[in-house]
Amino acid sequence: MSPFKAYLIEEVEGKIQGAFVAMNESQLDAGEVTIKVAYSSVNYKDALAATGAGRIIRRYPCVGGIDLSGIVEKSTDSRFKPGDPVIATSFDIGVAHHGGYAEYARVPADWVVPLPVGLSLFEAMALGTAGFTAALAIVRMEENGLAPGKGPVIVTGATGGVGGLAVDMLARLGYQVTALTGKEAEFDYLKRLGAAEVMFRSALDLSRIRPLDKTLWAGAVDNLGGDVLAWIASTMKQGGTIASIGLAASPTLNTTVMPFILRGACLLGIDSGYIGEPYRSRIWQRLGDDLRPAHLLEMAHRISFDEVPDVFDGFLKGKARGRVVVELAGA
Ligand SMILES: NC(=O)c1ccc[n+]([C@@H]2O[C@H](COP(=O)([O-])OP(=O)(O)OC[C@H]3O[C@@H](n4cnc5c(N)ncnc54)[C@H](OP(=O)(O)O)[C@@H]3O)[C@@H](O)[C@H]2O)c1
Predict the structure, then answer these.
(1) CATH fold of 129-269
(2) What CATH number belongs to 4-115+295-327?
(3) Ligand 1 midpoint to CA 28 (Å)
(4) For residue range 145-159, what is the model confidence (pLDDT) as tens digits?
(5) Given ligand 1 and candidates 223, 299, 317, 321, which is best to mutate, with the most ligand atoms within 8 Å of its CB?
C-alpha cells in the first residue's frame, strides 16, 4: 500500500490541532480488518474532537472521524473478505483509534458490520453514528412501550443530524412528531421531513420549569440536555419515555423526581458508542429497511476530504443542518 492521506489530530503545547498528513500502513492501529475508506461523515462529536472544544480524544495523535464506510482490503477474520462493503462506527474509532478521515483504516473485526441490503456506502454515511443513534433511541423507546397510538413524540435539536433523522424515522413509523428547533427558517424543511408540528425554542419559557406541567409527550428524543430536557421531563404523559442522547445545549440536568415517581416517566440513557452485537447489525439492517429515512438523500450534504476542517465551526455553533458526508475514495 503506498502512502495515503489522513487528517491527523494532535495535541501541541496543550492546544488541539488537525492537519492533513501522509501516513503509511505500518502507522495504522491494530485490527483484523483493513478497509479502503469510501466515505466518512461529520458528527457533533467529530467537531468537538477535532477542535478540542470537547475533550473527546483519549489518545493523541489520532486520525479523526468516528464513522467510515468502505471496501475490505485485507482481513484476518473469517467474517470479512477482500471486496466486502462494510461500515465501522463508534467504539474507539476517531477517539482512541485512527478513524475515518483517512484513505485507509484498520479496525478490530468486532467493530465492523456488513453493509446492509438497502443501503449504499454513501447512504450508510448519510446515516452514520447519527442515524444509528436515532434508530437505537427509537428501538429502546419501543422496547419500553412507546407506540404510535400513545401520543406525540418530541424531537429536540431537530435540524441536526440525529434530530432530523429521528423526525423522519418516527414519522415514517406512524408517530405524530413535534420538532423543536432553534432555527425558525427551517420550518418548511422540518415539515418536509415529516414533523406534524414545529416548535421554536424561543417560544419556551425555561426560566420557570414546574415539577409537573401540562402533559404533552408520550416520547421524547433529546439531543440538547439542560433546561430543555428538564422541561420535557415535566411535560411527559403518564408512562412516557425520554431517550437522552445529547448535550448540545448543556450537560447539566436540573429536575425533580416528580415526573418519574408520579407519572411513571422513564429516562433512558442512549449510548450508541459501545453497544455491540447482536443489536448493532440488527439496527443497521433495519436502517436499510423499515427505519430507512424517506428523505435521507435530501438531508445529506457531500463534501470533499479537503473541506473537512472547514465544517467543524458550524457544528459547534449549532448551525449544522442534516448530515455532512465526506467523500474519500467514493463508490
Ligand atoms: N449518546 C450517544 O450515543 C450519541 C450519539 C450521537 C450523538 N450524540 C450527541 O447528540 C447530540 C446531537 O448530535 P448531532 O451529531 O446530531 O449534532 P448536530 O448535527 O450538530 O445537531 C445538534 C443540533 O442541536 C441544536 N443545538 C446545537 N447547539 C445548541 C445549543 N447551544 N443550544 C440549543 N440547541 C443547540 C441544533 O438544532 P436546532 O437548531 O434545530 O435546535 C443543532 O443542529 C450531540 O450532543 C452529540 O454529542 C450522542
Answers:
(1) Rossmann fold (3.40.50)
(2) 3.90.180.10
(3) 30
(4) 999 999 999 999 999
(5) 223
